[in-house]
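Subgroup meeting minutes
Present: P.N., E.W., G.H.
Scribe: E.W.

1. P.N. recapped why we're keeping a running log of single-chain structure predictions: easier to compare across weeks, and new members can see raw inputs and outputs side by side.
2. G.H. added today's entry (252 aa).
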Amino acid sequence: MSGRSRIEWTEVTWNPTTGCDRVSAGCDHCYALTLAKRLKGMGSAKYQNDGDPRTSGPGFGVTTHEDTLTAPLRRRDPRVVFVNSMSDLFHARVPAEFVARVFAVMAATPQHTYQVLTKRATRLRRLAPDLPWPANVWMGVSVESLDVAGRVDELREVPAAVRFLSCEPLLGPLDGLGLDGVGWVIAGGESGPGARRMDPAWPAQLRDACQTAGVPYFFKQWGGPTPKARGRLLDGRTWDDMPRFRQAITAP
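Output recorded in log:
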């Protein structure tokens, strides 16, 4: 697993798979694709497989990593772990057997809390009945606009202890998005070259919906040329709410 992550809502990252393909508008300025190209140029062994240039890029071909799979077993101190910051575990080219092994490692390390995020909600729903769902696994889907709100309906069918939404980059209003069955919402603007600007009304409306529904709300950033270009304040304060953490369990 990595050292301390720069992602505000997690502590460390774990990438048993790397690589992905664009599937919706939220992928247009993918930070992971850009980073993979850089890592390939630096000679990183995990980023030597190229993806389809129409949907992916250099160093971003979907790849499983046996040597990384067991990394959480070697770390006893409890951590909040974002799974696959550089990939999508439910990509069609990640074998179902490998997905099951990732879940087995998470089940075998109850001292950690895992955050899994996907844009492939349909495959998630189809594989879910064959996976273990221990209490330390939080499952989320990306929802950048109402165009992909159907992902939330599929997430509701998954028996995760916490179901969450990542509305980043937030590309449009999510008025009327139902939050029943959702236990956490993250929102944020896009960052990097060519970042699309987020209307201030969009994250505020989503926050208000979360407050009405009693759902923890985490506002990550306004975005811009850099992640912190416009700061993190929404209506004069930060919003860092998260689901209640389980008491840490020491692995045997």
